[in-house]
Amino acid sequence: MPDVPAHVVFGAVGVAGGKRTTPATVADVLRRAVLDGTLAAGSQLREAHLAADLGVSRAPLREALGVLADEGLVRKVAFKGAFVAEVTAHDIAEIASVRMRVEPYAVELAMPRLASGARAKLTHALREMQCGADEGDISRIIDAHMSFHRIFYEFSGHRLLLSMWRTWESQLRLFFAADHRSFADLHDLVDEHERLLSIVDAGNTDMITGEIRCQIHGLADRPAASPETRSPRISTTRR
């Protein structure tokens, strides 16, 4: 597995100097580096290099690596160190095979709760996705993308469904960190989720099932969309 020198990853940007010295802020810097692909899957994270380059001691760095390990973004190997986690196509295919069957059910269960706050959260997630796409901020768009889907599971009122989602989320994050390059335009992802929300608003469960299955099934080998064929933008404000 490759060892990525910290100075190559972060250059002169550190987190010392006052405001960004806590384990949480160190974790945020490393998380973004993993999710935007700067720290490649399988890369070894050497504490001495990272601590020196980020301008922090090893204590907050170790805590930060522990946070990322809990999130599934970092894998710790006894006597070898910490590595950026890897996710295989087979892992994603297995997750997709289950999601295509249970996610429409999670959405169906959440639909009665849309008026009580779920839709406002979905709209906020879409706006975050839009901002991430506009700015080319991969970490932000992945956060919003995961949040969008998590909301349905959270508002489903079904603890087992939510637990299933939580076991998948870190692997999906890693997948999207690599897969975003397959999009001709990051706005394609926003378009798809705006379309899904409009279908959810309409309340047609068969169309919801079809749209979710289409999006999940076509995730890895989606053809690049041209501006002429891209779906028209749907307003995120409910009429």
Structure write-up:
The protein has 239 residues and is mainly α. Helices cover 62% and strands 4% of the residues. The C terminus is likely disordered. Helix 2 packs across helix 4 and helix 6 runs antiparallel to helix 7.
Blueprint (SSEs and pairs):
Layout: H1 6-10, H2 23-35, E1 44-45, H3 47-54, H4 58-71, E2 74-77, E3 81-84, H5 89-110, H6 118-135, H7 138-155, H8 159-179, H9 187-202, H10 205-217
Antiparallel strand pairs: 1-3, 2-3
Write out key terms for the chains shown.
239 residues; mainly alpha; 3-stranded antiparallel β-sheet; 3 strands; 4% strand; disordered C terminus
Helices and strands: which structural class? mainly alpha
Low-confidence stretches: 4-8, 220-239
Helicity level: 55-70%
* Main sheet specs: 3 strands, antiparallel
Q: What proportion of the residues form beta strands (DSSP E)? A: under 5%
Count of DSSP H/I helices: 10
Mean pLDDT: 83
Q: End-to-end span in angstroms?
A: 52 Å
Shape descriptor: elongated
Question: How many whole angstroms does the radius of gyration measure?
Answer: 19 Å
What is the number of beta strands? 3
The topology string of helices and strands comes to HHEHHEEHHHHHH
Strand order of the biggest β-sheet: 1-3-2
Task: Give a quick precis of the structure.
This protein is mostly helical and 239 residues long.
